[in-house]
Each structure stands twice: as C-alpha cells, then as structure tokens.
Amino acid sequence: MSTTKATKPTKTTAKPPKPTPGGGYTVRDAEGTRFGAALNSNACGISGADPAVAVNPAWFKSANPNNDPICGKTVAITGSNGKTVNARVVDKCGACESDNHLDMT
Hints:
Strand content: 25-35%
Largest sheet: 6 strands, mixed
CATH architecture: Beta Barrel
Distance between the termini: 10 Å
Number of domains: 1
Radius of gyration: 12 Å
Helix content: under 10%
CATH superfamily: RlpA-like domain
Number of strands: 6
C-alpha cells in the first residue's frame, strides 16, 4: 500500500459535500490515500470501477450501503499537479477520519 497526501485538510464537516449540478461531488482541501488494488469487494457492490474511491462512512445515509444514493456517484479529485480525475464512489473508508479524506485506486 502506498500513501499519497493531496493537501492537508482544513476543516471537517458533519455531512458530505452537496452534489454538483451533474450529480457528482467536488471535495476541496482533501486528504487522500491511494491503494494500488481495485476496490472490487466493496460496500456498494460495484466492480470494475477504475478509478474508484472510498469515502467517509458519514457520506452513506442508507442502512444497506448497496442501495445508498452515494454509490456510483463521481467525485472530482484534483491533485497538487492540477490534474483532475473523476472517480466513482464504490466503498466506505473505515480508516478515513475526516469527511474530506478519500481512499483512491
């Protein structure tokens, strides 16, 4: 497992960011960790998503994560180099301590 920090989080909120008009999410001042393996065994039951992202469990609102509206949504992730990647939400990140911490493939 390799770890990459995008930027240091500046604040934590009690809820996920609001969706953008296209139905995706943009997270600002995020902390990111990167896992080299695909997240095929995941809370949303989505396989083959690449790139994929696991988000803080606070983003999930449904008792059954497979039916949660966050599953399959996109998160725009911009690295320190300015490059933006859109990743599909496929899992909960149990190790994510803040709402703006993302685990990425």
